[in-house]
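Agenda item 2: farnesyl diphosphate complex prediction
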Amino acid sequence: MTTAARDILMPAEWRDFWALTKPRVMSLVVFTALCGLLAAPGNIHPIIAFTAVLCIALGAGACGSLNQWYEADVDAKMARTAQRPLPAGRMDREAALHFGVGLAAFSVGIMGVAVNWLSAGLLAFSIFFYSIVYTIWLKPNTPQNIVIGGAAGAFPPVIGWAAVTGDVTFLPVLLFAIIFLWTPPHFWALALFMKTDYGAAGIPMLPNVKGQRVTRNQIFGYSFPMAGAAILPFILGDSGWLYGATSMLLSGLFLILAFRVWQNEATDAAAMKPEKQLFAFSILYLFLLFALFAIDRMVIA
Ligand code: HEM
Ligand SMILES: CC(C)=CCC/C(C)=C/CC/C(C)=C/COP(=O)(O)OP(=O)(O)O
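Presented output:
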C-alpha cells in the first residue's frame, strides 16, 4: 500500500490511537477469548458472540491505552517503546487517558447489557487488574510483577466462556492456568535478551534483579506445570485426541526449547538464540494450542 493510500485509510492521529491499544499483543489475547467462547458448551447467537469478542478486544485496548498513559516516562527510556505516541510527543497524556477510560466503560457496559453481567464483571476486573494492580503497583516494585500481573492476560478465555454459559466451571479455570503459567517463560525469555533496556528504565524485571541464572531456572521451572496444565483437558476427558496429540507435541517442543534456555550460559544478547527461539515459539504455541482446543471441542469431542 502506498503511503498516500494508507493515510487516507487511517489518518496519522487514528494510527496513534490504534497503536495505544497495542494491537499486535492484543491479537493473541483476543484470540484466546474467541477460543474460550467457541469451546464452551451451549449455544450463543452469532451476533451476541461477535459483540462479546468485540467487547473483549475493546477492553484489551483500554488496558494498552491506560498502560501507555501511565508509563509514558518509562517508555521514553527504552528503544523498543520510545516511538509510542506519548513518548514520541505525538499525543498528549489526557487524550490517552480519556480514550482508555472511555474504551473501558464502553466495553464493560455493552458486555453487561448485551451479553451478561458475569462476563462484564470479569472484563472489568481484568482491566482493573492490568491497569492498576500490574501497571501502577506491581511492575515498578517487584520482579514477580509479571507472574502476579500476568493473571490479567489469562482471563480472556474465561470471559469468552462466561459469555456463553453465564458461569465459570473447572475447564475455563484450567484455560486460565495455562496462560498464567505460560506468561513467565513467554516474557522472561524476551526480558533476557532485552535486559539492558528494562534495567535502564528502572523496571525491576527478574533478569536485572536476580540475574540470568535464576531467570533461566524459573523459565524452565514454569514450563513443566504449564505443559501439565495444557495436557490436562485431554487427560480429564474434556477434549478428544486431536487436542491431546497437539498439546503433547507442542508442549514437548516448548520443554525442549526451555531446556536449551536453561542450559545456555550466554550473557551477551547476541548469543541468546535459545531465548529468542523460545519467545517466538511461545506465541505460536499459545495460538495453536487454543485453536486446536476450540476446533477439537467443536468438531470432535
Ligand atoms: C504480564 C504479562 C506479559 C508481559 C509483560 C508481556 C510482554 C511482552 C513484550 C514486552 C512483548 C514485546 C513486543 C511488544 O512490545 O509489542 C510481547 C510480545 C507479545 N506478547 Fe506478551 N506479554 C505478556 C503477556 C502476554 C499475553 C497474556 C499474551 C497473549 C495471550 C501475549 C501475547 C504477545 C504477542 C502475540 C506478542 C508479539 C507481538 C508482536 O508480534 O509484536 N503476551 N509481550
Ligand atoms: C480482556 C482483557 C481486559 C485483557 C487484558 C490482558 C492484557 C492487557 C494482557 C496483555 C499483557 C501485556 C500487553 C503485557 C505487556 O506488558 P507491558 O505492558 O508491561 O509491556 P511494555 O513494556 O511493552 O509496556
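Discussion summary: Residues 169-301 form one domain.
Owner for follow-up: CH.
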